[in-house]
Amino acid sequence: MASMEENQSNNSTEKPQDIEKKHAAMIERLSNLHQSRLQQQAISRKSDSLPAFESTESFTDRFHESKTSIESEINRCRSLVTDSTNLKSHLDKLSVSISQLEKLVAENSYFLPSYEVRASLKTISDLRETLERVNVELLPKKKFSFKTKKKEQGNVVRTETENDGFDSVLAEKCSIQVRDSPGFRNKEGVVLVKSFGSSKEGDFTLSDLDSCEVRITGCFRALYIHRMSNCRVYVGPVLGSILIEQVEDCLFMMASHQMRIHHAKKTDFYLRVRSRPIIEDCNNVRFAPYLLSYQGIDKDLKDSSLDEETGNWANVDDFKWLRAVQSPNWSILPEEERVNAVKISDLETPSEDI
């Protein structure tokens, strides 16, 4: 009883401003608690409605579903063997589906564990190889389409052979599968130019080039590069992936969602890439950020979802180096050794283009 009277006495002696402060503090605590509850409810509603891959488990479920569908469609192609027109269209659609699966991995690689990214890319590589085997097995190879050009260099007349088809004789001699797609093949000492329109076209191939300069502008789906030496290659944004095999003493400046490099030596790569570049069986390769410029490149990069610099050009995965320490096969290109920004529209007139 005495205690209650004492508390009442103490309360009666509190100043009005002290009471107001306590009241304000209590109101603030209640308001903060209410806001916290509202935020938790909003997060819960958002999680229920998100179609994106907010977890590794949901990503792997979607990836496995797409993989299974592609495998099923590849097997179904054999039933279309008597209808070459529909078969070709079906195989082309499957190639697009695989590219979309690659883009899916690239767009979600920022939160996926590294082993999950590697496993997904290996699966995609296997799907592409299977599709290539079906292409070779079920569709006849295209005939050569030659065009001869003569170029005068002083008193010497130089003749070049150009073809946009699949070089079957060369492919049979080499272990690399050269794709049946438009491109530049079997050139030496020339400047080669290709400009894609706004339709986001298909695949393009560069193979067996020596001492050439290649300039490609616009958006396209995928780029395949085989057997090149002493070349400089400048490429606009690629919607899917770039595969590079057997290159030496080259410079590549390119942007893509994915980058795979096999058997490269003494070569510099200036990249903008959504996922981590992958190298295998490479040595003395160096990496730097993308420095390419041409009229309209900002729009092309935005349309390809490559307008943001992710910094992944410096996050290289060496599949043949599994130790925790830095791989000795690649390095960051020192700033003092990098080339200046390249605006290919200001370069000299090309020798030939398509």
Automatic annotation (TrEMBL):
Q: What GO molecular function terms would the record report?
A: tubulin binding
Enumerate the UniProt keywords alphabetically: Acetylation, Chaperone, Cytoplasm
- Compartment(s): Cytoplasm
Q: Which SMART domains does this entry report, sorted A to Z? A: CARP
Task: List all Polar residues biased stretches.
Answer: 1-14
Name a single GO biological process.
Answer: tubulin complex assembly
A GO cellular component term found in this entry reads: cytoplasm
Q: Where is this region: Disordered?
A: 1-22
Q: What is its main location?
A: cytoplasm
Q: Where is the C-CAP/cofactor C-like domain?
A: 140-321
* Recorded family membership: Belongs to the TBCC family.
Subunit organization = Supercomplex made of cofactors A to E. Cofactors A and D function by capturing and stabilizing tubulin in a quasi-native conformation. Cofactor E binds to the cofactor D-tubulin complex; interaction with cofactor C then causes the release of tubulin polypeptides that are committed to the native state.
Q: Could you identify this protein by its name?
A: C-CAP/cofactor C-like domain-containing protein
Give the classification, highest ranks: Eukaryota, Viridiplantae, Streptophyta, Embryophyta, Tracheophyta
